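Researcher: Next entry: COMM domain-containing protein 6 (Certhia familiaris).
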Amino acid sequence: AADKIRLIPQDFFAELCEQIIQHLNHKMPGINTAELCQRIQTSGVDISIGDLAKVANTLSFLFSTAARNNLSTEELIATLGSGVSTLPKHAVQVIRHVWNEQGKATAVSEDARNMATVGQFVDMKWKLGVAMSSDTCRSLKYPYVTVTLTVADPSGQITDKSFEMTIPQFKNFFRQFKEMASVLETV
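Model: Predicted structure:
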């Protein structure tokens, strides 16, 4: 991960660290590495989404472990310095600054540690479409609904999951959402 961190400009690295701390503090559902990667690539840096996700996972592990062990800023920096592959100076400075400013607020509760690791729902989009024809069938006129769910996995990575449903399937899906809404109103 240290080799990939060297590629990331300091301002983008600081933004990534801030987002990870905010995610660990439950102030945001996750880190949109795809959007951040696109901005980094637009600035002229050649880094893949997969590499940026690895860096984000490494930093998330670093910050959550530091929070779990109640490390001070100096203890965290000393631990980083003893690593096999040393981090670039700008990365250590950013980690020091972010942990000094916001690390104390990052508390990993016992309940959070014991909680099952599941994703968190962020957003949902849908659209109605009609399949007019295909190479094997001249006239389909088949309506369908495409649903895209945006989910943050336990490490904070935001991904989109898409699926299509027939109209009867969508009506059943909608009915189940209405049932959930009515149950939530009674709570």
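Model: Note for the record: Helices lie at 2-7, 10-24, 33-42, 49-68, 73-81, 89-102, 110-114, 167-186.
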